[in-house]
Amino acid sequence: MTANEPVTPALDGTPLTHTDSVSDRVSRSLPSRTRSKPTAAADPTVRLRDVVVDKLDAMKAKELCVIDVRGRTSVTDFLVIASGTSTRHVKAMAQDVVEAAKTIDVPPLGVEGEREAEWVLVDLGDVVVHLMLPRTRDFYGLERMWELDVPHSESHELANA
Known about the structure:
By secondary structure, this protein is α+β, with helices and mostly antiparallel strands. It has one domain: Beta Polymerase, domain 2. Helix content is 39%, strand content 21%. It has helices spanning 22-29, 44-58, 87-103, 134-140, 142-147, 152-160; strands at residues 6-9, 15-17, 62-68, 78-83, 110-112, 119-123, 127-132. Helix 2 runs antiparallel to helix 3 (87-103). It is globular, with a radius of gyration of 16 Å. Residues 1-8, 11-15, 31-40 and 152-160 have low confidence and may be disordered.
């Protein structure tokens, strides 16, 4: 793999490369209305998101995606989704994310799926990390679900139907 070979597309369709900084990758993968401002580094949620993304990037996560769900759910602020090349890779990434979060005093609220390691969820509160095998990720399609932009009134009507 060359230094300028595209790694994974950002949500805006531009390719991300290994030469992009991680903050450039995250910023470009978020819709323009949710991109972090330069002062956002002081925000502990953004800092946690960046620590997670940096760790996953260092672990060679595949198809790394960050989805800003602030204003869409009260459960979390960011979803970080990535694929691993094997169950061992998925499990190792999950363990490293937990350790990285602990270094900034954010212990996980829970970790699920470590035994099978086809889909490991690491709940860090404001950041929820989904690490999956590619076939599991394709089957469940979390990105597709969160990219749907249903207005609140319509989603309320659908829920009551």
